[in-house]
Amino acid sequence: MFNRLVFYFLLMVAKKMGPLMTKRVISLGLKSQIFTPQRFLNNRLKTNLMGRTHNSPIGLASDFDRNCKFFDFFIPLGLSFGELGSFTLLAESTKERYMFLPKDKALYIQGSTIPNPGISKAVQMLASRRKFPAFVGVSLVSFGSEGEAYKTSSSAMFGYNNDYHQMAMRVAPYVDYVCLNFSHPNMSLAQMLSDESTILPMLLDLKGALQIAAPLKPPKLVVKVPYDLSELEVKLIASTCQKAFIDAIIVSGPATANRQIRTILKRKSALSMDSSFVTGAPLRKDVLQLVKRFYLETAGQMDIIAAGGIFTAQDVYDAVAHGANAVELCSALIYKGPEVISKINKDLTKLLERQNTNIIELRGTKVDLQSFLDKESQKDQFNIRPDFVD
User: To 5 degrees, how large is the angle CA 124–CA 31–CA 329?
Assistant: First the structure.
C-alpha cells in the first residue's frame, strides 16, 4: 500500500512535468510490480477480434510502447492485445514535444514525429521475444525515403508501398497482426485510401507478402484511419478494405492539419496546432461517430477498434454499442496510471451485468443497421434504369 501511495504521488508530480516523465514513472511502477494483478475476468467481457476470442475488449494503443518495455506488465492488469510502435523504415531522432494538461478533459497534444528505433532495431527486439503473452501487433508508418518533396511526387505511391512491403515482411514472423498507420499527420495516404485504383493493389500485395514471410501463421492485416473522415470517404474506404480482405479497421486520433484545426475550433480552444496532433478525450464524440459509420458501411461484418478518448467503462460501453469490437488505451494510462485497466474491466462488468448482456451481444445495439441497409437497398433500386429502345 505504501509503495502504491508513493507511486501515485510521483505520478501526480510527473504529470506537471509532461508525459515523458509520466511514462518514466509508470515504467518504474510496472517494473516494481506494485499493482495487484486481475486474477480473473468475467466471461461477459469476452469479445471476438480478428478471428480470435479475447478475454477483454481493452488493448494498448500504438505510440505508448516503442521499445517493448511496457506490454508484458500490462497483461496481468487485464489487457488482452496491443500495438508496439509505431515504427518507420529508418530510425527517428526528433525529440518528443507535448502540451500536457492535467485534466483528462483537456487537450493532449503530442509532437507529430516521435522518436523510434527504426524497423531494424524493432525486428531485433521482436525476435528476442519470440512469444508474447497476448495478441500483439506492430504499427507501421511510411514517410517515403525523400521527405516532404517525395510525398508530393507522382511516384510517391511506389515509395510508400515499398516502405510498407519491406517493414511488413520483416516483422511478420514475430507478431499476430500488422497495422498500416494511415492516420499520421505526415501521411497523405489517409486521403489516398479512398482511391481504390492505387490503394487496393497495395493492400493485396501486402496480404501476399505476409503470407510469404510467415506461411505457417501469417499475421492479420489492419488499417488505421483518422477520426474525422467524411461520409463519402468512409464509404469508399470501407469498400476498399472489404475488397482487400482487411481484418480490422482502427479508428484513431491523428489527422491532417486542416482537420486538426477544425477539431480545435469545434472544441472552442485557443490552442495553436503547429505540426502536432490531438489525442485524448476531445476526440471521443468524433471517434464514436466514425465507428458507427464504418459499422454501417461494412454491415457489421468487419472488426472495428476504437482508439481516442477512452477513459472509463462507460466510454468502452458506448464504443462497443456503436459498433466497435474492442478499444485501445493510451492517454488514459498517462492521466490515470496503469490500474485504470483493472478499474475499467471491473466497472464494465457491472454495467454489463446491470443490462444483462455481454460485449458480443452489446456490439452495435445503438446503431439501427437494418434501417440503414433498407435505405441503401432503396437507393440501389432507384439507380437502376430500364434500357431505352430507340
Answer: 75
Parallel, antiparallel, or unpaired: how do β-strands 58-60 and 135-140 relate? unpaired
Axis crossing angle, helix 2-15 with helix 19-32, rounded to the nearest 10: 170
**Alpha carbon distance 83, 86 (integer Å):** 8
> Are the C-beta atoms of residues 257 and 185 closer than 8 Å to each other?
yes
pTM: 0.86
Kindly report the backbone phi and psi dihedral angles of residue 319, in degrees, each rounded to the nearest multiple of 5, phi listed first: -60, -45
In degrees, rounded to 5, the angle at the alpha carbon of residue 290 between the alpha carbons of residues 279 and 244 is: 105
Are the CB atoms for 62 and 85 separated by under 8 Å? yes
The helix (H) or strand (E) run that includes residue 137 is strand 135-140
Q: Which of 69-83, 120-134, 299-313, 330-344 has the lowest mean pLDDT?
A: 120-134
Question: Alpha-carbon distance 210 to 206, whole Å?
Answer: 6
Query: Residue 14 and residue 25: Cα distance in Å, rounded?
Result: 7
Place of cell 506488465: 73
Give the helix/strand (H/E) hosting 86: strand 81-87
Q: Which long-range contacts (CB under 8 A, 24 or more apart) does 196-202 make?
A: 196/236, 196/239, 196/240, 196/243, 198/157, 199/240, 199/244, 200/240, 200/243, 200/244, 202/157, 202/160, 202/161, 202/164
Amino acid at position 95, single letter: K
Tell me the pairing of strands 108-110 and 277-279.
antiparallel
Nearest to 293 by CA among 281, 304, 278, 309: 304
Query: What are the cell numbers at 143?
Result: 514517410
Q: How far is CA 204 from CA 89, 201, 208, 210, 245, in A?
A: 20, 5, 6, 10, 8
Query: C-alpha cell of 259?
Result: 482537420
Q: Output the CA–CA distances (angstroms, integers) from residue 22 to 17, 83, 111, 157, in the order listed.
A: 8, 20, 16, 38
Are 213 and 173 spatial neighbours (Cβ–Cβ below 8 Å)? Answer: yes
What band does 270 get if pLDDT is binned at 50, 70 and 90? very low
Q: Which CATH architecture has domain 35-383?
A: Alpha-Beta Barrel (3.20)
